[in-house]
Amino acid sequence: MAQDAKEIFEAIIERVKVLDPVNSRSWFDSLSLRTFNGGLLEINCPDSQSAHFLQSDCINGFTLAAQQITGHLVTVKFNSENTDQKSKTAKSTGTDFRLHPDYTFDNFVVGPCNRLAHASCVAVSKALGTTYNPLFIYGTVGLGKTHLLHAVCREALNSLPNAKIQFLSCEEFVNRFISAIGQGSLPEFKSQYRTVDLLVIDDVQFLQERDQSQEEFFHTFNALYNNRSQIVLSADAAPGEIPTLPERLTSRFKCGLVARIDAPSYETRIAIVQNKARLRGMKISDEASEYIAGQVKANIREIEGALTTLYALVGNSGQEITKDFARVALGDSQTDKNITITDIIKAVTTYYDVRPADLQSKKRSQSITMPRQICMYLARSLTSHSLEEIGGHLGGRDHTTVMHACGKIAELEQSSEKIQAQLVELTKRITK
Ligand code: ADP
Ligand code: MG
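^ thats the input. predicted complex w/ magnesium ion below
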């Protein structure tokens, strides 16, 4: 085993990519080791938002990887290099929201379907309250509204580090409003949202049929608008087409710029596939990108899902994804999205000639453990079930067991041609 702390650290990062393909990104390579002693591993991150993301979404993968590489329990902590300075800024500006590190303008592919939405978001974020106010972005699910809103906040924070920003989903707004009523803290609630430079609220269709929240939102809107503070909103439909919203609200939503996002064209989808593959450090051939873009039409989230599946299969081996590989691995799974864990258990038990009850039992003989781990691995890559749900189907095992299994099979897949062939065959049978 590697003894030198830096080597251990690098091995941990490589292991994380195998254990947690969903969250792994190529920028993990730019993380650096701060300290490693006494069972505490401190990792430097480029900024406080990525540190937040790692701490909240990736901590399980890092902890397990550190444990596997070192052979003992390790506590992992993420620091941003200039944490002290950043946290002061965060305190003075009251930013308590988290921005997803992938959701930047740089990572947003612009095409005819979203050009206006993108351009207006960029304009607004560089000059709050002076261009389009409010800015209202709408489109159906999975077309990049939330991505753009994150990018607006990130860009505004970059260009105006002292700006007061609130960014939340409309559902959170409603929930916080309700709890402020319950706790008798309405004045604090009002001042929190009415005194900002930028208020960004995602999915305002959530205000439907919530009369009292609509009323509160109306007054918040007016206070900000009169103050020339920037307002950015998103919804799944145009202002006038959100059922039950009163005219006085929808007419205000319309008084700035309303930008629609449409489903992306084939060319834009290809560019998005390539962009997402680059983010994960995956090599993908042009034909494979075209194949995926042809399979996934309406919802870009499915592109992300397809790439996660492929990443789980090739890991960080550097293997180029060809069209044939993508076709076999994704099979019909993009058109027939109803693969269940039961389908997977059925295929695996038939293939290895074991009983489903054995997979769910506590038995630990190799002839049972391997098919069980393969089930977990395939469930992870072919369905969108969580680690907990997968563990639940396989005898109530916890998420770390599932994650461990996925890591082990992913490794075997790279080191053993036999296992690789079995996985390809099983994937074919399941997706048929
Ligand atoms: P919405 O909020 O409209 O439902 P999201 O913003 O959550 O959609 O986007 C879904 C996924 O698609 C995200 O992973 C996002 O990064 C990605 N996505 C959407 N549009 C684009 C784009 N133009 N370029 C790159 N990624 C995109
Ligand atoms: Mg969204």
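The chain has four domains: 2-91, 115-260, 266-335, 337-431.
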